[in-house]
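Q: What would this chain look like folded?
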Amino acid sequence: MGKRKKVVYTLRKQTLSTSSSSNPLTTSEYKDYETQFNYYYESAQYSELIDHSSKFLVYLNDLDLQKMSFEEYEEFFKVKFKWLLKFFQLGKERDCSELMLNAIESIIEYYQIRDNSDYSPDSLIYLMEYEEGAELSENPIYSVKANKYLGSFYLMKSQDPKDKQFQDLSKAKKYLQEARTQFRKILDERNHFKFNNFNLELFHEILINLGIVYFKSKQFTLAEDSFNLVIDMAKSNNDYENLKKGYANLSILYSTKKDYRKAIEYCELEFKIINEHELEGLEVALWVKLDLAIKSKNLELVQSTCRELSNQSLNQDEQEEIDTIVNQARQVQMFNRNFSDVFESEAESDDLELIESNTGSSEDISQMYLNKCAMSSITPNSSVLNWISSLFDKNADIQPNFSGQGWSCIDFSAFCSILEFPIPESSISNLNLSRNFIDDHCIKLIFESSKVLELIKSLDLSCTQISTKSLLTLLNSGGLLNSKSLEELNLSYLKIGNQSLLVIIKILVVFSKLRELRLNYTRINFDEFKFNDYINFQFNSTFINKEFKLELIGNKVSNPSNMIKWLNIINNFKPITRLNLSFIKCNSTSWTLFNLWKFITKCAHLKQIDISNIKFQSDWLIDEDYSNLEFECQQLNQLDLSHSNIKFQELSQLLKELSKKLMSRVSIYIVGYKYEDQLKELINSQALSNLNIIM
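A: My prediction, written as structure tokens:
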């Protein structure tokens, strides 16, 4: 639940010794169990065999394996699994549900260890067997455990992108609610039911997992109630491990609701429990606490938590991350005090002399950059220094890739000062500033640099905090008239908002050589703008025969007709030659391939279109005839329809019309199509002679 720092537990391998004298497969006790099992089995003494197998299973599960070498453990692990399968099959064949169910529990544990996963897909068949066996058992606790197992399986798989076929949160909720109901029923009906530690732990696990299901379903009140019940029970039983889990989950819940005060409060309670009772998870709790401190903009808590984390056994990457965060916190504090005074220094006149006298020395540029960093009390960036050292090396081709450096406005100011030097044009043709703390002030610094405007060809500003207002201010300022060289611009993962069309049109006007614009997973509002404002934007003849690729991958669309109008206006202003709409998400019933295709056919300059991984909402109607559409996109040479849910009848007519109306051969990708056999028959019928269909 939530974005806790992942902790990988390497089972056994790190704790096992290299001793070779403790293999349980060679002990006399194991040999006796094995011999006795074979004797009962061969003599068909099934009642004795069942009783002996139950004892044998307990013996195998209780063995202390810590003194074994890893090689011995692997051997024993495989042998034990064979025995588990025998016990399972024996219990199933002889209608001994208890032996079968206990064997299945051990098999599930085997898969967990083998795959280092809570629930392996291989264990599902045994979980279903467990459910059937539990119904036959006289002990109702097995039915509780069966529902707990299945609910937990579907919950864990809902968080695993690799197992899409098992991602069903509704099943997780159904099974876990049933487990909770059955458990309470046992408590009500059986006064002699012993609420021992095992049953208490079982109930805690049900409540925690059910709380997580409610949380993922955004039923926050129910989730909170479930976690609070765990906390109350854990307090009354001095169960500090589950008390820790309850606090941790409530902390994540309140963080999601952006109630950071309560989130930090419960995180502190978790931290206190871990410290007082020496529980595991201290480092994980500290990372969560640091994340909350950053989100709540509590700089003092950020710095104190970083100090606590530095006392842990961190690896090099983690320590570097902590150092970066500490520097950022210090920079923000300095900026908040008085940004305008940061750069006042007597050394500025020396830097000016360096700039004026420099004729191509990376040493002078490095010195000036180091001066700026010293004045700003920031740590010089090694990537910047490496780039500076390569500037005048004819054999080097290092572009300034500063993605994910955690830069703030002070870092950008230091970097932009470098661009005042006469540096080679090729050294800054591609500038990657993605995943940094770029705000409106930073983007102003970048665009005010003449070198950026004159030399840069590719600019990546994805995953930053640039606002629509800032973009429009810069685009309207007239200060970007020198920006004729920019060819690629990445604004993915931004929130452009209601003025998206105006921003895009302005970008196309200012950056006249733009060949590629990426707006992937950008929160574009296609609905709230007036189309009449854009009637005067006429087709620009200077764009004819110019390449222009537009990417809108993964955007959410509430009104598809408005999005198509939006695309029409852009295409009329600057013809789109390559368009990528893959993974577009839309729940509107008007989101059909036919409605989208009506726009595509009018794009006379379109060469490539990717509409893969799109789920169209409505079934195709026979009166929507593709043959009636005008077909102006004669330059089309590639179409991607992979992993879509298009009905075969509609796809068949579309392909036939393409084959008739296209003058040149086109490649069509239809990978992962549901009706693959019918499509193959259509291809073999020679009805699509000039289409190169790739499946």
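Residues 324-453 form one domain.
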